UniProtKB/TrEMBL annotation:
<feature type="binding site">
    <location>
        <begin position="239"/>
        <end position="242"/>
    </location>
    <ligand>
        <name>substrate</name>
    </ligand>
</feature>
<keyword id="KW-0819">tRNA processing</keyword>
<keyword id="KW-0808">Transferase</keyword>
<feature type="binding site">
    <location>
        <position position="116"/>
    </location>
    <ligand>
        <name>S-adenosyl-L-methionine</name>
    </ligand>
</feature>
<feature type="binding site">
    <location>
        <position position="91"/>
    </location>
    <ligand>
        <name>S-adenosyl-L-methionine</name>
    </ligand>
</feature>
<comment type="function">
    <text>Catalyzes the formation of N(7)-methylguanine at position 46 (m7G46) in tRNA.</text>
</comment>
<dbReference type="InterPro" id="IPR003358">
    <property type="entry name" value="tRNA_(Gua-N-7)_MeTrfase_Trmb"/>
</dbReference>
<protein>
    <recommendedName>
        <fullName>tRNA (guanine-N(7)-)-methyltransferase</fullName>
        <ecNumber>2.1.1.33</ecNumber>
    </recommendedName>
</protein>
<feature type="binding site">
    <location>
        <position position="166"/>
    </location>
    <ligand>
        <name>S-adenosyl-L-methionine</name>
    </ligand>
</feature>
<feature type="binding site">
    <location>
        <position position="170"/>
    </location>
    <ligand>
        <name>substrate</name>
    </ligand>
</feature>
<dbReference type="InterPro" id="IPR055361">
    <property type="entry name" value="tRNA_methyltr_TrmB_bact"/>
</dbReference>
<keyword id="KW-0949">S-adenosyl-L-methionine</keyword>
<dbReference type="InterPro" id="IPR029063">
    <property type="entry name" value="SAM-dependent_MTases_sf"/>
</dbReference>
<feature type="binding site">
    <location>
        <position position="202"/>
    </location>
    <ligand>
        <name>substrate</name>
    </ligand>
</feature>
<keyword id="KW-0489">Methyltransferase</keyword>
<dbReference type="GO" id="GO:0008176">
    <property type="term" value="F:tRNA (guanine(46)-N7)-methyltransferase activity"/>
</dbReference>
<comment type="pathway">
    <text>tRNA modification; N(7)-methylguanine-tRNA biosynthesis.</text>
</comment>
């Protein structure tokens, strides 16, 4: 158990760089874990280091060696060993980790491999996991594409969750959206038959793209008989981000597909 987090920011030198941040957490998440040994391509995410509170920094220093991993693309993960034989769900993009921790607490028999590049969120989720006694959460740092392609065995996952990914609003940036045909093909190859793909977004054009791309995949089938969106399942918590969006009049769309 951890004491209540101190939310004051960790002091940083004026003009601190990402390399300086790495020096703050020498055993924590790497700045560029895959380095130069994987090809450069269009990324679906923005690097987000952010300001780390003292509580988050403490969690990163103490817990990263135990529950964290850098996506370096150099070896295939032994998920059975990592999660004690539990079925494993991959969550891409967890923000500050509150919803992830709630889902992990509600379903302790399922392992959650949670991926993000936001340093404060990584520290926050680690702190939440320790505070709540959650041993079924692991935090991964880096590019989810490299994780899926290089570090997850075919059929190794029991589910995939993508909640509120960056919608890349401008048309010229749509190519950066994560849910594209190539991504879905890769992700489906890492899912066992019957595994669920669950996406959620409050950006209507992206919801329409998700529905089109997922429906077109020969490896997936919509769990909705009418082929449309799914009401928010009870197991997906209502997040602060989602609540704020609803307050602004946004409509949230959930999509749940099953691996054939």
């Amino acid at each position: 158990m951890v004491s209540e987090q101190n939310d004051s920011p960790v002091p940083e030198p004026h003009g601190a760089t990402r390399a300086d941040r790495r020096l703050q957490f020498p055993e924590g998440p790497a700045v560029d874990p895959a380095g130069s040994h994987h090809e450069r391509r269009i990324r679906s995410f923005r690097p987000r280091r952010g300001r780390v509170t003292s509580g988050q920094g403490d969690a990163l220093r103490r817990l990263w060696p135990k529950w964290g991993l850098d996506i370096d693309g150099r070896s295939v993960l032994d998920l059975d060993e990592m999660f004690g034989g539990r079925p494993v769900v991959l969550e891409i993009g967890f923000g500050m980790g509150e919803a992830t921790a709630q889902m992990a607490a509600a379903d302790p028999d399922t392992g959650i491999l949670a991926v993000d590049v936001h340093t404060p969120g990584q520290g926050n989720l680690l702190a939440l996991a320790e505070r709540e006694g959650l041993d079924n959460v692991r935090v991964a740092n880096g590019d989810a594409i490299i994780l899926l392609r290089e570090m997850i065995a075919p059929g190794g996952l029991d589910g995939l969750r993508i909640f509120f990914p960056d919608p890349w609003h401008k048309k010229r940036h749509h190519k950066r959206r994560l849910v594209q045909p190539e991504f879905v093909e890769l992700a489906a190859s890492r899912l066992r038959p019957g595994a669920l793909v669950h996406c959620a977004t409050d950006w209507e054009p992206y919801a329409e793209q998700m529905l089109e791309v997922l429906t077109a995949s020969p490896d997936l089938e919509n769990t909705r008989p009418d082929g449309g969106y799914t009401p928010r399942p009870d197991f997906r918590p209502l997040t602060k981000f989602e609540t704020a969006g609803l307050g602004k009049g946004h409509t949230v769309h959930d999509l749940v597909f099953r691996r054939r």
